[in-house]
Amino acid sequence: MSSESTEVWTGWYRDRRGAEAIVITADGSRVVTRIRGIEYTGASFAALSAAGEGGQALTGCVLEWDLPLPVVADGVTQQATLSCLLTLGERADLSLTLHYGGAAFESGIAGGDFEEALGRVRRQLPPGTEFGRRLLQAA
User: Fold this and answer.
1) Global pTM?
2) CA 70 to CA 42: how far, in whole Å?
3) How far apart are CA 40 and CA 20, in angstroms?
4) For 133, phi and psi rounded to 5 degrees?
5) Per-residue pLDDT of the chain (139 residues; tens, 9 = 90+)
6) Signed CA dihedral, 19, 23, 26, 32: sign only
């Protein structure tokens, strides 16, 4: 994703107080979401903190969202879905699952590093298969 483009995904926020639908925006240099009226922003999903609220880190919760991700196999582009599950507590745990071609390719728990988790998924793809675009270069 280039710094000029903005990605918008819908998902869910859950904590002890319940769940609510959220919108996540990523522009290549930061990620933003609004939860219960408070805007959270950061350079990565694992580094989300309240904007204008003393910078309190987002913690004690789970964020879940899906995003479309084209996959190119031998020159043919097919749509796939990347399911993302981020648990924010004492540490950040991120799990990605790519649903493509009737199979699920999982990252396992990869700390909070989106690129590392995406790399784990990429290495499982069949030879000659690659993601059709870049995601979250800075996030």
Assistant:
1) 0.85
2) 26
3) 15
4) -160, 165
5) 344 578 899 999 999 999 999 999 988 788 999 999 999 999 888 889 998 767 888 999 999 999 999 999 988 999 999 999 999 988 889 999 999 999 999 998 767 678 888 999 999 999 999 998 776 543 3
6) negative
